[in-house]
Every structure is written in C-alpha cells, then in structure tokens.
Amino acid sequence: MVDGSAGATEPAALNHSALTRQLIEHEALRLKPYDDKTGEELRSGDTLHGKLTIGVGRNLSDRGISTVEAHMFLANDIINVIHDLDRHIPSWRSLNEIRQRVLADLAFNLGIAGLVRFDQMLKALSSGDYHRAADEMLSSLWAKQVGKRARRLALMMDAGEPVALADV
C-alpha cells in the first residue's frame, strides 16, 4: 500500500482502462448535453440549474473543450456532411473542388435538410449555371442571416475559385 511515508514502495501504475470503465459506471455516458444537478437532458429554452455537462461528466460550463477536441468534433462533422451530400446530392462529386467546398459549407451550416430546400439553386447547379446558383444563394433568408459568409460562398460558387473572407 502506498501511504506517502518514507521508504514506501514505488506507486502502482494507474490502470486507465479500469478507471475509464469505473467512471462510465458512475457518471454514465451521455451523448447529449444535460444538467448535472437534475440529470435531465437539456433542450433549447430549458433552464440550467447546475452545470452544462456532456459525455462522461465533462463539465462544459467550467472546463469547455480544448482546441484539439474542437478539431476532432469538426473532423467528424465534416465526414458526416460528406456522407449526407453523397446520399442526398450525389451529383455534388462532379463539381470542381471549390464548388464542392461551397456545398459542404452550406450542408454544415444549414444541415442537409436545409440545403436540399435550396431547390432552385440545386436546379441551377445541375444545369451548370453557376451564376444563377450563386444568385439563388444570395436571394435566400440564409444569406441575410449569415452576411459575409453567404457573399463569399456565392462568389466561390459563381467563379469556381477560392475567395478570401477578407476580400468580401
């Protein structure tokens, strides 16, 4: 036994796998945000009584997430966006890389359900009318809500070339 006294034996290595299982047993694995005080899953408009928590007891209120974790989430979200585009708009793969990025950005921002509602833009895309597709993007409520992002993506859609955000 390690008690911190002089002559104590070398501390035992922590079994991370056993600790992981133990913490999951105690905290549970929660894939949606919840209130740690009530244990209730949080939905838009709910009142938070304790700390915003997710995963296995991750206190988002105090700790948040690291840059590495944010990039890990983003990488997974991009994979999901690509799968959604492949499933719902398979012709997107025939576009050049810049226009593919525009559709992926839109799907990321709007969700695939929101993107497929841009039926006139998608129709223009399918006929290769990129100027009209860009105009359709800019005439939407989404464009009014996101401002520079919409203008940049529309320019990219129209020209098929990258546009720096600072140039918008």
Unreliable stretches covering 5 or more consecutive residues: none
Q: Quick one: CATH class of the domain at 67-167? A: Mainly Alpha
Q: What is the mean pLDDT?
A: 94
CATH fold-type name of the domain at 67-167: Lysozyme
Structural class: mainly alpha
Terminal Cα separation, in Å? 65 Å
Shape annotation: elongated
Give the fraction of residues assigned to helices: 40-55%
| Strands side by side in the biggest sheet | 1-2-3
Number of helices: 7
The succession of helices and strands, N to C, reads HEEEHHHHHH
Per CATH, the architecture of the domain at 67-167 is: Orthogonal Bundle
Beta-strand segment tally? 3
Biggest pleated sheet: 3 strands, antiparallel
Beta-strand percent range: 5-15%
Radius of gyration: 24 Å
